[in-house]
Give the backbone structure.
Amino acid sequence: MKTASLLIASALVSCANSFGIFSLSAAPAFKKLVSTGLLEVDPVSSGGFHALEQLASSSDHKTMLLDKIKTLYSEKDNIAGGDGDDEKALREIEALVAFLGSQGKGYDGDLVDGEWSLLYSRNGKKSPGLQKLVGKSEKVKRTFSNFDVSDFSFLNIGYTPRSNGSLKAKVRFKPIGSGFSKSAAGDIVIRRISCDIVGASFKYRRLPTLPLPLRVKGGYLDFVYLDEDMRITRGNRGGLFVHVKPEVLEKMGV
């Protein structure tokens, strides 16, 4: 499997290099990143190498990714990436995530701090059943994952459709060394944070907050890409999540 991933990575780099997207010095880092399984790129399911070449020819994969996700919101307000969404668009999104992930932008405490809105969520094959069930009811502009770096925690918040109720889960995190990659310059890029759910609650209107007995240890998130207004992570069960700053959602008009 690792050998196959390296071959896929090599082919992707060759396509990208033909358009000047990646320098030759960046190729080893890109191969290393794909070989970890973090990107999960499959040329066949992505529409073939020609489709990947077309994606690689873009000079702005971030804008392309946002535009592609926006097409999934034409007739709904459920979080994009669920069952029933256009399969071709989902494959292209995975490929664009791969290109962004090759840029060596992992965890950064200064950048990740603050409020983040969930824009796209795609369950992995090993995602727990509860996550899949909750994901079907998540709505855009009503689902957040807000980081408080000073407290080494983040708060996942999901509001009911009318915003009169909220489900919250507090997660303690810590940047760790495993899962790292190297940039084209050879610098270590921290990708992974350990995650332990330490508390959860449900609040509905003026009723008292109801604590929930939800405690989970041993999870992690890998930062595929992070900049000032976009965060792409992959969970330890394979789920892919794209969060953006709230102002990005306003600009997108979703």
The first helix runs from residue 2 to 18. The CA atoms of residues 2 and 160 lie 42 Å apart. DSSP finds eight helices and eleven strands in the chain. Helices lie at 2-18, 27-35, 49-56, 61-70, 87-101, 109-112, 129-135, 246-252.
